[in-house]
Automatic annotation (TrEMBL):
It comes from Thermofilum pendens (strain DSM 2475 / Hrk 5). It is a multi-pass membrane protein. This is ATPase, P-type (Transporting), HAD superfamily, subfamily IC. The keyword Transcription regulation does not apply. One of its GO terms (biological process) is export from cell. PROSITE patterns: ATPASE_E1_E2. It is found in: Cell membrane. The chain crosses the membrane at residues 59-75, 81-99, 243-262, 274-299, 760-780, 792-809, 829-851, 863-884. GO terms for molecular function: ATP binding; ATP hydrolysis activity; ATPase-coupled monoatomic cation transmembrane transporter activity; metal ion binding; metal ion transmembrane transporter activity; P-type ion transporter activity. It comes from the Archaea.
Length: 888
């Protein structure tokens, strides 16, 4: 491979058959075919057949297959075939669930795939990192993860953290010029490498290697963080399944002993029976089923713009007690419009709304033409050129991209007819810490520095002030205070203010640094409005009722933030507002004392966010924190739920987060919390349904054996019951719409066991116990009425299935009477119940099926018993729910 770092840029471009405009779209597509996707390890796709075969991996299923072959060998061919068929049916069901989950997970992965910005045919496009090819021109800016090895062709203070590759965490400054061939990798200042992170500045680089050919690909075949698939929930469920397995062993021992010695059943029959019971009653597939419903829930959330990056986050999300949210673009629309320009000797009103540059600049009622006013013209030139946003007229409409503040400034300049592009020679980029940015341009044969930023930051850097016509005077300290007072007044009206200043640099330099941001001439302050998103008010209301507190964290001026918070009704009587500076002077102990009262944090930097998260967590809160920049990443990681902005967020922020908001909207966080609770509650519902059925299936034969009764169901019958309980009704329960008041209950404590002791006692012990008592009583009384064994069993079997289905309906809510829920809300459930009951009854019409399931024609007695048991179980479930609600 050529030594890219030792070559001149032209040579690099020639060698790679590309240009500074990037590859043509067609060529990029062709190269993707040739070089393959830019990934270090190819995504392993699970073949559906593999998922199907996985269903037979369980030792219990294998044992069952073995037992049924054995029973075939000793002459019970029919039974064994039926059993195999039922096993196949439940494997099909398991396959369906897993396959669906796999698809949902795949879709989620696609949504969170890393992206990169490249030039293709001169146009800036965002593509999936996997589609980047050698010859592509990467556009790099702070917060990007470099996705391939590339040679720098442009650097504006580009600084890269190369720790993932070199272990060195101090950012490295990048430049364009060739360097000696023997320069070791960590010192190659004109190269960037896959896996490293841009922390400052911006730049362009030509991709020289992708995928396995990158330095990273060479040293590690598996960088991609191993995704933790096992959630705390799954772990807990595995434990629960193990308990049931132990119970199963007890039942197996008792039933075999009684069956063999007292009832004289054949050992093979007993084996087949016990293994069938084990397959039916041991919920070993539970973790998979739960993952499946989590994945589907996550998929549903994604449709509502909330993209969950890690499955366990769903659970934490539902437990959130504190949301710390950025203001600009999240609580507010972020679509800014400049409405006022304050200058030393005039205040200019700006008309027109939105991003369309139609409007006027008025002083009083008179329109002003910047051509007559040098100061105003410079201000507008600065607004236009000290600017990285794009505002273009395209296909009959105005399209914009970039930061809302900058778009507003560009639109302002365009409204006044100022659109002269001055070549940019140098710059000191914007960062949330600096709260300002400067650019160096050529203007009328001179070099000029434009600086814009937060007024409290820019005004102190000024030494002069310009009036509208361009006359420059000294700016005294007293005058600075007056300007900042004006700024406060504007901020108090909820306006977001940007000060603009300039300075001629006549020493012919073509670069600038932070030290040049001094002795500036203040031109004026541009005030813009950024209205709150209309849906935020309702979302805040919901939070209040849901026991979730909200804090606003913003880099904006205190008074602007307060005005927005007031408008939204966020600020209560006791609430306090704190600035970054005040936060700096607070000790951790002091912050811990006050943190729950602080509703607004203003003029803070990303570093402050980490302290806020830590203080809140210490207070026992489950904290969701939003962020978008590279420096937000530590706070996002530290938060229980890191929330990144999908549109304006950097790759690094997204990587550090659990949740990505596709629409950057605060209301979406609240929606996600709501859905998180709903998904969790639904999982509980079908777990209660499934587990209480399993426990009953185990208790029933145990009690019968102990009482000396025959076994209450046959092997085939129990496998069928299992299909009914594990099958469509259970899946349908996981689709239950959330109960409306779910969000208004207090958040679940994280790490709390999924079922409380009371719930276990009432739902997983008492319900099965009542069911067992009823069925055993029915069984023994039918037998004592003289019904033959097989017929009494038919009655029990029918009762078991029908009552289970009725309970599926009752478990639609774990708290409310199911009859108070709107009856047809969960159509899949209703349909699956009706289908199952119909099927169960249809069995009696076919002598063949009756033979298969070993059932007999039902008598009127059987029907009465089944109806009574079903009604009784339905009522019991409701009664236990009521008991739970009263049990304090
Ligand atoms: P939030 O933290 O709620 O998103 P924010 O956008 O104000 O609010 P930052 O992006 O950290 O937060 O910006 C901090 C301050 O820097 C802003 O209040 C503004 O005064 C100034 N600022 C914002 N964008 C620019 C920019 N592109 N150029 C110069 N200054 C800017």
């Amino acid at each position: 491979m050529p030594s890219w770092h030792a070559m001149k840029v032209e040579d690099v471009l020639r060698e790679l058959g590309t240009s500074l405009q990037g590859l043509p779209v067609e060529e990029a597509r062709r190269r993707l075919q040739v070089y393959g996707p830019n990934v270090i390890e190819e995504e392993k796709k699970v073949h559906p057949l593999e998922i199907f075969l996985r269903q037979f991996k369980s030792p219990l299923i294998l044992l069952l297959i073995f037992a049924s072959i054995l029973s075939y060998a000793v002459g019970e061919a029919f039974d064994s075939i039926v059993i195999l068929a039922l096993v196949l049916a439940s494997a099909a069901l398991g396959f369906y669930q897993e396959y669906r989950a796999e698809k949902a997970l795949e879709a989620i992965k696609k949504m969170v795939a890393p992206q990169a910005t490249v030039l293709r045919g001169g146009e800036k496009v965002v593509v999936n990192a996997s589609e980047v090819v050698p010859g592509d021109v990467l556009l790099l800016s702070a917060g990007d993860r470099v996705v391939a090895d590339a040679r720098i062709v442009e650097s504006v203070n580009l600084r890269v953290n190369e720790a993932p590759l070199t272990g060195e965490s101090t950012p490295v400054e990048k430049m364009v010029d060739p360097i000696p061939e023997d320069t070791p990798l960590p010192d190659r200042a004109n190269m960037v490498y896959a896996g490293t992170v841009v922390v400052y500045g911006r730049g362009k680089a030509v991709v020289v290697a992708t995928g396995k050919n990158t330095e990273l690909g060479k040293i590690s075949a598996t960088l991609e963080a191993v995704e933790e698939r096992e959630t705390p929930l799954e772990r807990e469920l595995s434990r629960l399944s193990r308990w049931i397995l132990v119970f199963m062993l007890v039942v197996a021992v008792v039933v075999s002993l009684v069956g063999f010695f007292v009832k004289k059943y054949s050992p093979i029959d007993l084996l087949l029976w016990i293994v069938s019971l084990a397959v039916a009653a041991v919920p070993e597939a539970l973790p998979v089923v739960v993952t499946s419903s989590l994945a589907l829930g996550v998929y549903r959330m994604a449709k509502k713009n909330a993209i969950v990056r890690r499955l366990p986050a769903v659970e934490t999300l539902g437990s959130t007690t504190y949301i710390c949210s950025d203001k600009t673009g999240t609580i507010t629309k972020g679509e800014m419009t400049a409405v006022k320009v304050w200058m030393k000797d005039a205040t200019i009103e700006v008309t027109g709304t939105g991003y369309e540059p139609t409007g006027k600049l008025l002083v009083g009622s008179k329109e002003v033409d910047p051509n007559g006013y040098e100061g105003l013209r410079l201000l507008l030139l600065a607004a236009f050129n000290n600017n990285d946003s794009e505002v273009r007229y395209q296909d009959g409409r105005w399209v914009t991209s970039g930061d809302g503040t900058e778009i507003a400034l560009k639109v302002l300049a365009l409204k006044a007819g100022v659109n002269a592009e001055l070549p940019r020679l140098g710059e000191v980029p914007f960062s949330s810490e600096r709260k300002r940015m400067s650019t160096l341009h050529e203007l009328g044969g001179r070099r000029v520095v434009f600086t814009k930023g937060a007024p409290e930051v820019v005004v102190p850097l000024c030494r002069y002030i310009s009036s509208m016509d361009g006359r420059v005077e000294e700016l005294s300290e007293e005058a600075k205070r007056l300007v900042l007072a004006v700024n406060d007044e504007l901020a108090g009206q909820g306006l977001r203010n940007i000060a603009i200043a300039y300075r001629y640099l006549d020493d012919g330099r073509s670069t600038i640094t932070e030290s040049d941001e001094k002795d500036l001439v203040l031109l004026g302050i541009v005030s813009m409005i950024d209205p709150p998103r209309p849906e935020v008010k309702d979302a805040l209301e919901t939070c209040k009722k849901a026991g979730i507190r909200v804090a606003m964290i913003t880099g904006d001026h205190k008074l602007t933030a307060v005005a927005v918070a007031r408008e939204l009704g966020m600020l209560g009587e006791d609430d306090i507002v704190v600035t970054g500076k005040e936060l700096d002077s607070m000790s951790d102990a002091e912050l811990y004392e006050k943190v729950e009262k602080i509703r607004v944090y203003a003029r803070v930097s990303p570093e402050h966010k980490l302290r806020i998260v830590e203080a809140l967590k210490k207070r026992g809160h489950v904290v969701a924190m939003t962020g978008d920049g590279v420096n937000d990443a530590p706070a996002l990681k530290a938060a229980d739920v890191g929330v990144a902005m999908g549109r304006t967020g950097t790759e690094v922020a997204k990587e550090a987060s659990d949740l990505v908001l596709a629409d950057d909207n605060f209301a979406t966080i609240v929606e996600a919390v709501k859905l998180g609770r709903e998904i969790f509650e639904n999982i509980k519902k079908f777990l209660v349904y499934l587990l209480s059925a399993n426990v009953t299936e185990l208790m029933l034969p145990l009690v019968s054996s102990v009482l000396g009764l025959p076994l209450p169901f046959t092997a085939t019958q129990i496998l069928w019951v299992n299909l009914v309980t594990d099958g469509p009704p259970a899946i349908a329960l996981s689709l239950e719409k959330g109960e409306k008041d779910l969000i208004y209950r207090n958040p679940r404590k994280p790490g709390e066991p999924i079922f409380s002791k009371k719930e276990i006692l009432l739902f997983l012990v008492a319900v099965p116990l009542v069911f067992t008592v009823l069925l055993t009583y029915a069984f023994s009384s039918l037998l004592s009425l003289g019904e033959p064994e097989a017929e009494a069993r038919t009655a029990i079997f029918t009762s078991l299935v029908v009552a289970e289905l009725a309970m599926a309906y009752a478990w639609r809510s774990l708290r409310k009477p199911s009859l108070t829920l709107s009856p047809l809300d969960n159509k899949p459930l209703v349909v699956s119940i009706i289908l199952s009951v119909t099927l169960q009854l249809a069995f009696f019409a076919s002598p063949y099926v009756m033979h298969v399931l070993e059932i007999h024609p039902v008598t009127i007695n059987d029907i009465i018993y089944a109806a009574l048991v079903t009604a009784a179980m339905f009522v019991s479930v409701e009664a236990f729910k009521y008991l739970l609600s009263k049990w304090k």
